[in-house]
Amino acid sequence: MVRTITGRPGNTDSPAGRPEPAAYGRRRVRVAVFIRRHHLAPYVMLVPSVIAVGIMVVYPAIQIAAHSFQNYGLPQATGVQPISWVGFSNYSLILHDPEFWSSLRISLIFAAVVVPLTLVTGTLVGLLLNRLGRKMSVFVSSSAMIAWATPAVSASVIFYWLVNPDGGVVDWALAKFPHWLGGGAHWAGYSWTNSALPAYTVLTVLLVWQSFPFIAVSVLAGLKTIPSELHESARVDGANSWRIFWRVTYPLLKPIYLVLLLLSIIWDFGVFTQVYVLIGPGNMDEYNLGMYEYERAFTMPPSYSIASALAFVLTLILLVITVGYVRSSIRQGAIK
């Protein structure tokens, strides 16, 4: 028993359910010693990120996987009809749909064009930035990163305004060009988004414009790590700029190009936002996998289960491409 400030007897016991400070301190010390002894500190720091990834990625992926084996559409989502399991019927329906194979072909051709153009353009800009002075390099790279940081919807709206047949800048400029440069009055009011070739041409320019700054800055960062003595030695041996890049620079930047190539394939293979804003659903008969998945999910009629199966098919295709390229790079010694 002790006396309080008022002189009345008091109790030194802690309130019920609350551990004593000394016991709490000893418990913290034991936990800290256990973590230090078993080298668990990095894993403890990763726990919040793992929980966030589980909530944002793993749980939705499990739901999508379950829906891909169900008959799940708008009636099931609203509770009008019960959910039934259909096994691999959704996957069989996709693989027997000619529109799926057409969309896959378009996605492969589109990625085969956009990805190399993006890498080449970004590499050339990165080499240019490496030759500029420090202040000019920072200014140009910062200006270019504005294009990469522009939201996809905003960039798509800008390009739609540029190619709009009703007063678009592109049609106006082409109409002003002389005939020997391909210009003329026939470009006035030309629609770029109603047929496949011009629409995907505009999409190619849009995606290259948005993506090349990231490639350029990544290549520039890699170039800064290469000792200048290697390039000087190659010049002394009589190598030109192309041979220096191919024999010296590129082998040292192969790990960076591996990551850039895989990211570009993932970004460009199933692109959706730019296609949806620039072209819109229902305006063409030839779409890529992103728009095909959207139409199966929300139109003709809505089927979330088929869209879920398509999402897993798209993931499987990208996984096969990624694993194949990584294994090939390991055999060639690009990564260890």
Work out the strand percent: under 5%
CATH class: Mainly Alpha
- Which outline best applies? globular
Number of domains: 1
* Overall pLDDT score: 82
By CATH, the superfamily comes out as: MetI-like
The structural class is mainly alpha
- Helix fraction by DSSP (H/I, runs of at least 4): over 70%
Low-confidence stretches: 1-5
For the biggest sheet, the summary is: 2 strands, antiparallel
What is the number of beta strands?
4
Helical run tally: 14
In order across it, which strands form the biggest sheet? 1-2
Query: What is the N-to-C succession of helices and strands?
Result: EEHHEHEHHHHHHHHHHH
General description of the model:
This protein is an all-alpha fold. The chain has a single domain (96-332), classed as MetI-like (MetI-like fold). 71% of the residues lie in helices and 2% in strands. The chain has 14 helices and four strands. The chain has helices at residues 21-37, 41-68, 74-78, 89-95, 98-131, 134-149, 152-162, 169-176, 196-224, 228-236, 241-269, 273-278, 289-298, 304-332; strands at 2-3, 9-10, 70-71, 84-85. Strands 1-2 form a two-stranded antiparallel ribbon. A two-stranded antiparallel sheet has the order 3-4. Helix 5 runs antiparallel to helix 11 (241-269), helix 9 packs across helix 11 (241-269) and helix 11 packs antiparallel against helix 14 (304-332). It is globular and about 85 Å long. The termini are far apart.
Task: Name some characteristics of this structure.
mainly alpha, two-stranded antiparallel sheet, 336 residues, MetI-like fold, two-stranded antiparallel ribbon, disordered N terminus
